[in-house]
């Protein structure tokens, strides 16, 4: 059974995730940086550097949210970054950010389904995702579609939460995720379900080697996993 934000509703995971992000969109950036203590910014910079040698000119940022990863990807000097997300609320916040920074000519944000991308095959020089694949309704389908739109030999770089395995980080992480994070999330976002869903979705996600197996199953090769900050998160790389 899929982990969903609103257990009392009959909608599927995709619709519920869109509703959840619409609900928290105005406070998402603040919460994201506060709850991760700003480490998420460092993680994105590290992930982008892994594509430096590839010099991608057209980049797709899936589950772009408010566009933070798309903005970070501009360090690669691409011609264009296209960000796709299922939440119009998140995209609206992202467009405000782009307008303020005068980046609208470099980054385009589109409403779209990550599992049914409206792009032709072999289009992008790189596909990036930060903290988004965990929210896919059908993980294999979403990853397969990412592979489809990548050019042969091009890479995907994915950041996702993972589960620390060693003492004491494992215990500290579990305590923070289960007891502290949902309380702060509820107070700031006014949506209790959003930050209860987060630890539940992380717990259910196939991290590490399990996720690399899924990447390989849908067609990616030369897969790698690079743990971040004691295993709190990981960067995954796959090549078409």
Q: Assembly state here?
A: single chain
| Largest beta-sheet details | 7 strands, mixed
Mean of residue pLDDT?
Answer: 93
Estimate what percentage of residues fall within beta strands.
15-25%
Helix and strand pattern: HHHEHEHEEHEHHHEE
Taking all Cα atoms into account, the compactness measure Rg is 17 Å
Backbone shape: globular
Count of individual helical segments: 9
What would you call the structural class? alpha/beta
Pfam families: Ubie_methyltran
Family: Belongs to the class I-like SAM-binding methyltransferase superfamily. MenG/UbiE family.
Function: Methyltransferase required for the conversion of demethylmenaquinol (DMKH2) to menaquinol (MKH2).
EC number: 2.1.1.163
Summarize the structure.
The chain is an alpha/beta fold. It has 9 helices and 7 strands.
Question: How would you characterize the overall build of this protein?
Answer:
GO terms for molecular function: demethylmenaquinone methyltransferase activity. The radius of gyration is 17 Å and the shape is globular. The chain has helices at about 15-25, 30-35, 40-50, 70, 90-100, 140-150, 170-190, 190-205, 210-215, and strands at about 60, 80-85, 105-110, 125-130, 150-160, 220-230, 235-240. The chain is α/β, with parallel strands linked by helices. Helix 7 (about 170-190) packs antiparallel against helix 8. Helix content is about 45%, strand content about 20%. The protein has a 7-stranded mixed beta sheet with strand order 3-2-1-4-5-7-6, with helices on both faces.
């Amino acid at each position: 059974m899929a982990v969903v934000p609103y257990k009392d509703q009959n909608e599927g995971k995709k619709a519920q995730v869109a509703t959840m992000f619409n609900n928290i969109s105005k406070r998402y950036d603040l919460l994201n940086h506060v709850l991760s203590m700003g480490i998420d910014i460092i993680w994105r910079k590290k992930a982008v550097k892994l594509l430096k040698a590839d010099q991608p000119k057209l980049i797709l940022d899936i589950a772009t949210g408010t566009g933070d990863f798309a903005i970070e990807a501009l360090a690669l000097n691409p011609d264009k970054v296209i960000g796709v997300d299922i939440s119009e609320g998140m995209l609206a916040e992202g467009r405000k950010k782009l307008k303020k920074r005068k980046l609208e000519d470099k980054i385009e944000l589109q409403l779209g389904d990550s599992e049914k991308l409206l792009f032709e095959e072999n289009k992008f020089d790189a596909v990036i995702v930060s903290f988004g694949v965990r929210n896919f309704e059908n993980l294999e389908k979403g990853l397969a579609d990412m592979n489809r739109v990548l050019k042969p030999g091009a890479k995907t770089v994915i950041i996702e939460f993972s589960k620390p395995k060693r003492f004491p980080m494992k215990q500290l992480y579990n305590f923070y995720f289960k007891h502290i994070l949902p309380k702060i999330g509820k107070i700031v976002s006014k949506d209790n379900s959003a930050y209860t869903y987060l630890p539940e979705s992380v717990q259910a996600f196939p991290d590490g080697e399990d996720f690399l197996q899924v990447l390989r199953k849908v067609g990616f090769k030369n897969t790698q996993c690079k743990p971040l900050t004691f295993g709190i998160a990981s960067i995954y790389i796959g090549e078409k």
